[in-house]
Amino acid sequence: MILNHQIRGEGQPLFLIHGLFGSLENLGMVAKPLSEHFKVISVDVRNHGSSFHKDTMTYQEMADDILSLMSHLQIDKAIFLGHSMGGKIAMQLALSHPEKVSKLIVADIAPVSYPAHHQHIINGLQSLDFNEITTRKAADQALSHYVENQGVRQFLLRNIAVDKQGLSFKCNLAGIANNYAEIMKAFDPKLRYDGPTLFIKGGDSDYITAQHREIIVQHFPNSKAKIIASTGHWLHAEKPIAFNKIVKDFIA
Predict the structure, then answer these.
(1) What are 180-195's pLDDT values in tens digits?
(2) Which residues contact 142 (CB under 8 A, 6 or more apart)?
(3) Across-strand partners of 42?
(4) How far is CA 174 from CA 122, 161, 165, in A?
(5) pLDDT tens by residue, 160-175
(6) How is the chain split among helix, strand and coil, in percent rounded to 5?
(7) Is there a catalytic annotation at residue 71?
(8) Judgement on whether residues 47 and 138 belong to the same structural domain of the protein
């Protein structure tokens, strides 16, 4: 099975990998300008977007999905950019198959284990009863009891498809929920990637902290970091021009 993907532009291949509950559309602000310089391959990871559904989703499995897509597209080596969970998938790929990665760019995530902090989102999405809820507006209203931030709700509601039968989830919500503990895990401490690596941190985000530096260097000894001031976890959407310039300068 091959991941759903979208290809834009020509040149050196650059894969974009989205985060939890996202889809390839989330990195559209990055894909479009970068496609003027690179062959940009945006993917829906397993259990997300229009890609296939599976009961398991370890980072090694999700990295292997990318490798299968590379083989399908006859791409031997590429640059990888991942945001949040997508950054962890890209890191796993670089750590387990360094020969496939020419450069690695990680947006606002560290190679560490994280405490569970999405449970209210999972509970909220699981509470939506599409036998009773028939419109996006009604779904938004129901979800607001679990997720106060309207922007976050609008992001999550992109996982809902609308057709003649009514509403349904495009993502494999049960698969994501059952594998949530796996998604929060760190990596094998013995693994390392010696290639050029860039971590881009949102200045107001706490996903990467000074305490993570030792683990980052342990896995990625040839890494550096950039901070985009006055941005949170969605730094690429909040300041796309600054984000894209940092990416292009690093690759160049």
Answers:
(1) 999 999 999 999 999 9
(2) 124, 127, 128, 133
(3) 6, 16
(4) 9, 16, 20
(5) 999 888 999 999 999 9
(6) 40, 20, 40
(7) no
(8) no
* CA atoms of 93 and 239, how far apart (whole Å): 27
Q: Does residue 179 belong to any structural domain of this protein?
A: no
Whether residue 43 contacts residue 4, with contact meaning beta carbons closer than 8 Å, is answered with yes
- Rounded CA gap, 90 and 72, in Å? 18
Catalytic residue flag (residue 84): yes
Is residue 13 located within the same domain as residue 100?
Answer: yes
Q: Does 227 lie in the same domain as 125?
A: no
Provide the domain count of the chain. Answer: 2
Of 18, 83, 219, 233, the catalytic one is 233
| Same-domain check for residues 161 and 195 | no
**Domain hosting residue 110, numbered range:** 5-115+184-251
Q: What CATH number is given to the structural domain containing 51? A: 3.40.50.1820
Choose the catalytic residue: 23, 51, 84, 223.
84
